[in-house]
Amino acid sequence: MPLPYVLLSAAVSLDGYLDDTGPERLLLSSPADFERVDEVRASVDAILIGAGTIRADNPRLLVNAPERRAARVADSRPEYPVKVTVSGSGDLDPTANFWHTGGEKIVYTTDEGAERARALGIAADVVPLGPDLDWRTLLEHLHDVRGVRRLMVEGGGTVHTQLLTQGLADELHLVLAPLFVGDPDAPRLFGPGAYQSGRLRLMETRRIEDVVLMRYEPTAPGTGRVPSAADRHWLALTCELAAHCPPSRTAFSVGAVVVAADGTELARGYSREGDDPVVHAEEAALAKLAPTDPRLPSATIYTSLEPCAHRASRPTPCARLILDAGIHRVVTAWQEPDTFVPDANGTSLLETAGTTVLVLPEYEPQAKTPNHHLLT
Question: In degrees rounded to 5, what are phi and psi of residue 288?
């Protein structure tokens, strides 16, 4: 199921704290960085914080600049992004600023928590998710029911930790403030957990007055049939690679990327790459790796089109090449039509051999774009 693009945003001290233990909120960002945050808020469809942040900080969570709100309205969007919070217990303060400023508000909670929130008279749409909270279900609801495509998450540390450990964060904006907190009882940005983000990719560093903004994105593939945010990044890349294929009226344009379990890109390829007019994308990528590479058994191969199970140009189809390489996870955007090979179905060959095949159909339009002339 498609999910919103999830952007985590936080400011921390040099020793990794979100706040101190004093009665007043510790201001970590600079005035210019608060302006940047306001700009990011104005660009998203919804902003999410945990119930603990509402209790601790009593935030309004608004887009403050009138010109940014006016631009949203001119773009046929609500003046303010939807404000979202998550509370398993539903024990929320109905007088908090969160409920009485800005536009639409949503509370995601459990069945039991929904009864409590409604009894308290919380001024929001209360959405029960069942006996327990589930982040993937929450994000699917935001995307499919509320139309949220970009979600900004502003805390707190528990929320950030859960989204990263479950592989659901697409991007992290981390601001480093030039001070120390030094109190072991103060809240930290991230807690312990089995993080699925792997080694993050640094996309930008920027000095903003006396703080530094660092923008990262996770790179690690998901596990089994559970997609991670990084899966979406890598699959989008295969669609971009497909656009580099020399045109053909007798073969599809396909891109492929092989990624290690820690998020390291091992190889990439695309159809008809180099001087070989019949090479397939998966074949081109795998040819760049040693067959004995120890990272292959735990790697994921991404391909914009389902790996072939039959082909006329080579004796070994790509599905078999993947099995021979020892790769046990395949993520693809589009299942091969019968344009050239009846009952192509490389998925069946792979799954029969024990390989997990995950299809993310939201990328099918991108995968089809360089093949439009073959589909009409």
Answer: -85, 0
- Distance (Å, rounded) from C-alpha 166 to C-alpha 163? 5
DSSP string, 27-55: --S-HHHHHHHHHHHHHSSEEEEEHHHHH
Sign of CA dihedral 93, 95, 97, 102: positive
CA distance 301 to 293: 14
Tell me the mean pLDDT per 10 residues along the chain, length 376: 92 95 90 97 98 93 97 98 97 97 97 96 96 96 97 94 92 97 94 82 96 95 88 95 94 96 96 94 97 96 95 90 97 86 82 95 95 87
SS3 at position 134: coil
Angstrom CA distances, 328 to 68, 166, 280, 305, 374, stand at: 47, 20, 19, 17, 30
Residue 16 pLDDT: 94
Q: Are 276 and 315 in contact (CB under 8 A)?
A: no
Angle made by CA atoms 354, 356, 357, in degrees to the nearest 5: 130
Cα dihedral 305, 310, 315, 319 sign = positive
Report helix, strand and coil shares of the chain as percent, to nearest 5.
Answer: 30, 20, 50
pTM of this prediction?
0.84
